[in-house]
Amino acid sequence: MIRSLSEKKGGIIALNKDSSAFHCFSENMKLVDIETNNGLYTWNNKRGGDSQVASKLDRFMISEELLLLDKEIIADILPFGGSDHWLIQMEIKGIGTPRNKPFRFENMWLSHPDFISNIGKWWAEDLQIQGSSMFLLHKRLKHIKQKLKEWNQKEFGNIFTS
Asked: Fewer CB under 10 Å: which end of the chain, C or N?
């Protein structure tokens, strides 16, 4: 079942009512289609030229909440195994580990004369990302967190080694 016309090459390209219903369901459930790194189509009819038909039949759909957990998500189409169908694989790697220190807001930042203007400047930066409002907020806050860490190191250094 294809969700968009770009997910099929050759043959009759049309979205049916099942495809439309699936698209509505995934939108309502706030599911995100994870794109594979090494191609789009997971099935073809093993014909050449104008007779070839290829389609994206397989996909990984995950909730937006999983995207917000700071995990690295990798999806790949596996090497050809002789069938007309290619297997896909997804790997989720945890970026945050127990070794990482949690982010802490430092009250001393509020006493710095450039703190408020820096927050405004960093918030206004174009992050070149798209997604739901919650996803965009998550990415913007993550961006501010990184900027604060860099700024803290530059302005205050390690306050525990005085």
From this structure: C
Note every long-range contact of 66-72, with CB atoms under 8 Å and residues 24 or more positions apart, other chains counting: 66/92, 67/32, 67/135, 67/138, 68/134, 68/135, 68/138, 70/94, 70/95, 70/96, 70/142, 71/95
Structure tokens at 39: 């191609």
Q: Give the pLDDT confidence of 96-115 residue by residue, as tens digits.
A: 555 556 788 888 999 999 99
Q: Is the dihedral of CA 69, 74, 75, 81 positive or negative?
A: negative
Spatial distance between the Cα atoms of 14 and 9, rounded to a whole number of angstroms? 11
Q: Measured on CA atoms in the order 107, 146, 103, 119, is the torsion positive or negative?
A: positive
**Tokens 């694989």 sit on residue:** 89
Which residue in 55, 53, 94, 88 sits closest to 71, CA to CA? 94
Distance, CA of 69 to CA of 125 (rounded, Å): 23
